[in-house]
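fwd from M.: "can u put these together and see what the complex looks like"

so here's what she sent:
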Amino acid sequence: MYFKNIFTRRRFISSAAGTVAASLLAPRHGQALSGAPGGADTFTPTADWKDEGVIDLSKSPYAKLKTVPIRAVTIQEGFWSARRATNVESSIPSMQRELIAHGRMDNFLRLEGKSSAAQYGPVYSDSDIYKWTEAVGFVLQSEKDPALQHTADTMIREVVAAQEPSGYLNTYYVGDRASQRMLPKTQEMGHELYCIGHLLQAAIAYYRATGDTTLLDAGIRFVDGFLLPNYGPGPDKKPIVAGHPEIEMSLIELYRTTGNRKYLDLAGYILQGDSRIPLKQQQIVYMFCGVPFTSRTKLEGHAVRAMYACCGATDYYLETGDPAYLKTLDTLWTDLYERQMYITGGVGARSQGESFGNDYELPNARAYGESCAAIGNMMWNWRMLAATGDARFADVIERALYNGINSGMSLDGKTYCYRNPLAFDPTGFAGDWHTPPGKIRNPWYDTTCCPPNLERTLASLPGYFYSTSKDGVYVHLYDNSEMRWRLDSGNAIQLTQKTRYPWEGNISLHVAPTVPEVFTVYVRIPGWSKQSTVRVNGDAIRDVTPGRYLPIRRQWAGNDVVEISFDMQAQVIHANPAVAADTGRIALQRGPIVFCMEQLDQADSTPQDFPAFSASPTEKTQSRYEPNLLDGVVVLTHPGAVGPAPSQESLYQASLPGNANARSTSLQLIPYYAWANREPTPMQVWIPYEPS
Amino acid sequence: MYFKNIFTRRRFISSAAGTVAASLLAPRHGQALSGAPGGADTFTPTADWKDEGVIDLSKSPYAKLKTVPIRAVTIQEGFWSARRATNVESSIPSMQRELIAHGRMDNFLRLEGKSSAAQYGPVYSDSDIYKWTEAVGFVLQSEKDPALQHTADTMIREVVAAQEPSGYLNTYYVGDRASQRMLPKTQEMGHELYCIGHLLQAAIAYYRATGDTTLLDAGIRFVDGFLLPNYGPGPDKKPIVAGHPEIEMSLIELYRTTGNRKYLDLAGYILQGDSRIPLKQQQIVYMFCGVPFTSRTKLEGHAVRAMYACCGATDYYLETGDPAYLKTLDTLWTDLYERQMYITGGVGARSQGESFGNDYELPNARAYGESCAAIGNMMWNWRMLAATGDARFADVIERALYNGINSGMSLDGKTYCYRNPLAFDPTGFAGDWHTPPGKIRNPWYDTTCCPPNLERTLASLPGYFYSTSKDGVYVHLYDNSEMRWRLDSGNAIQLTQKTRYPWEGNISLHVAPTVPEVFTVYVRIPGWSKQSTVRVNGDAIRDVTPGRYLPIRRQWAGNDVVEISFDMQAQVIHANPAVAADTGRIALQRGPIVFCMEQLDQADSTPQDFPAFSASPTEKTQSRYEPNLLDGVVVLTHPGAVGPAPSQESLYQASLPGNANARSTSLQLIPYYAWANREPTPMQVWIPYEPS
């Protein structure tokens, strides 16, 4: 067996804090309630609401690629099915319990007189509930789950009941704090619009799952009833600053969902910044908003803010085609790819300000690499891929997904990384504002942004496998899966993958349009696959180039088979010499998976001698699949040496480097995403090497 | 000529802010003014005030070594004379102008009705004046300088005139802020006692220079009149927390100066902490005070605070012999030496909190290495050396002095490093709270702790060259110099060094007691000198061991010559493998001098290809003296290679490390202390190496 099934029974708390009324309102999608609070009408589902993807690019004029609905893709038993089962069976229910135990629902219930608890959590605590709800929305786009839906329905109604008649909804800025609402200072750090952005994304995901507009109507009431009449451009309105970018992409998704252009325009205004809210340079850097997005020349400041801003800006380009946006996005992406990204796809070098560092500043043990930032990186690259069809963006998506994102959730789905360092010493890890000393995976963070973010990412994953275009279909990701969707012509098509990816490099792709048709199947050749072969019905296709989509244009009938073979030889990677942290070190990657050494896997070693391991870079790596290790992983072994533990006498020795007393050994490596799932132990991705 | 003389004329501003009364009070040392403010008497100079050293250990029962007065040692033309001339001719006068221009004297004058300026600078701004005055005090212990003394006298009187009748003296906590005086929160971060500590150190240095007790009386009035009656142990007094350690060592120096044990006891109480001021763990770590010093097990938190606390604790041991202190100090020193110190003697890895990092966390470009922390390191090791006579402490003093301290002041003496990184890129240096982006040397910092700290260190340097002991005399540092002092027997002795140290390794030491006597001359053999020879009147001495004092016990007459020869072969240094930042890198050291590469010295190179330089560690280093470069330095050349500039295309390449297209070159290195004295250019101490 390559893949582990998880049969844990799901258990949800059906009543938040035990205070929910027993009878619940029925969903009211399709209703047309006029005279709703704030004067906004409720939204009537469109005819094609079930066809909308993770983001809905079906009508986006500058999207070269169109998203495929999550429900159109079934991920079958394989690598991601196990992780996704863990997400649904363990992570989402345990996180719901944590959210309730930490008062995140009480914050709403209190405003409805159903809880006497005090306000809990930081200013952005409402977003925890929304992101969890968005994860549920994505789950329900893949599968029916009445119990989960019932739970979410309940929570949604409890959320909506806390909305004020004005449309305002935020459980922090109430009571004595109500006077601070939307003041410039509050907008800068208060996360009101950040929370509403997450509400909108949750509402849209839930609507796309169920057709239920309850939460969506609440979001529209906030925007139409409270925000738009009072805030925006023009002398009669007050200015907006995003503070923490998020509202931009959610407003554009609301535009895509409703067709109402005012949301796109508002997003454009926010992306432009409003000089009526004067900001210090430090704030402009940190918040990555408040000045024209198109004035940006590098990624800087808070990494999640920067990634989310780039998502919103790319969404804006996809709808408007504004070339200044594309130029800026290209500049920023180059900065990311050439100077700021970890080999894991993680971003954000510094704990201080959770921020990007200088060019090439990519420390390993001190890496921040917040899970949310890696997710933001994937979300941004997904939008860039849609805009361009360029496989370099898909390479980044795959790198982040399999490594820097996948590392964020433990194998049992119950603990999470806030930060994702590339080296670790449990006794030396001092912790920070969010993460306690020595503990990298935790079930709860008071700023619990990352856990539900990981959940929504895994839940939405089917939506990232394929795209369609005017001339065919794109295959982005590889795993056992089935797509049932339609070509641009309307011709129904089924794509089926059979593979043991990422552990093996062969994929059998069945292409079955209902009616034979000439179109192009774009097969992604990952940048890491130096030698790939692609055959259609046994005939080799030429010009297979790493890091490109291989376009196979022909008349496809119902039983064509594309056989793909990628180069799964483990690779020794070295970093650009400008990355000082990686000088004298190599990393090992096999397929899309970045590997790491954990000390407990190294024979006859102690935590003290872990720094004395070195690799012999010119020798061959061996790989083997270990079905019983870490839910089933490929393990790499690589020749190396280990010296005596470093001298405890002096930091500096006047002698040549290298250790004459080192003994040969075989380094054992596991996938990076699976690290820290056993007892605490030192870890490193980048391994010192010695001349062989 | 090996050494440059600096003939700049000194110019001082004789009147602060132009408001000083023309007639000044005469010094009043020797006066016995009873009924002074706060009820304290003024101090009558002791008979032997001219015999007191940098710290006065003449009566310290647990000092194995006794300090030699600064005035007893003359540093003659050589390495340090040039730096010390710059200090007196350029640095001290230009810093005085900066202090006055930035209102540091106005703060005092305002309280006397002589300035209408607002309060200037941070809470600790008074200490800037005190540290500068202390520097002047040390200068005046070496040489007469009536103009400088007149300037300092004026400033001292202006300071003292601001003292309140209660004895309280602080220009920040006045007016509306007076109610915050000595509140627990103010003690934690308000630096009142830190400022008084520096006042006491300045007062004592000035007293030891001139016999003038004006400032000393003010310090005693604060302690006797304000502090001791109201604060300290016991239910009738309020508790003290140091906040920023400094008061401890200064109170003990006050004890040494006055013989009044209550100051030692108060220091002991402060070193013990007072649980009536409850502190968070984070504060205990950061402030390095507030809990019993003897409960500490590692260096952590703010590096300067930790170093100053260790100074105070060692002073306490020197007076009391409390073995728990010595045990703790030994534990902390081992932590410093084995896990926390840069090769430059700098300490403090992190900008955030100006703090120590984890074990072995010693980043190069991001190193903090505050000048004050390196000075604190030297001051602490000086005390440990006195307590033990162990040469390992002298090795650290020399390392810090020649490198991480000496780097802190520019060659022209007019600009200063707050932080002292071991790698630098002017375009990538983002700056921090104190240091502006891209500029590592600045004439002024609003927190201007480092500049006068550097000045007092250079001014006091003669006091660090020699010690006496019961059985003889110790030679710690090497430079052309003359000591005229006395042995423990009272027999007068003259020691004379002739050398071109640190550029050459030969020292001729003339030992001339007035009366022939059997005693031991302890000659320090630096840890870095693998092969040393020592001859007395031509006869070789055996058992010369690196990192030890070589004891030469014999009857010394008036014309004995010790010829010392140290190993000046440049050494390739590698770091403990646990220092991840130095993996795959070497450093070069020659004698006590640590070297670095500046890009502008590398032929045919650009800032962009600087990371592509590598050294060939097994090849020989050449050295040559360059009299016209950087005021005269030895330059090292070392075989290496330089590749094309790092690829701008990808951070990560699947290929073996090393650069097949690299061309051979000769790396050019200058002393680290002299870096950043020309146009901005990238720099590194730790150089990547490739297998040769």
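replying to her w this: Chain A touches chain B through 61 residues (CB under 8 Å).
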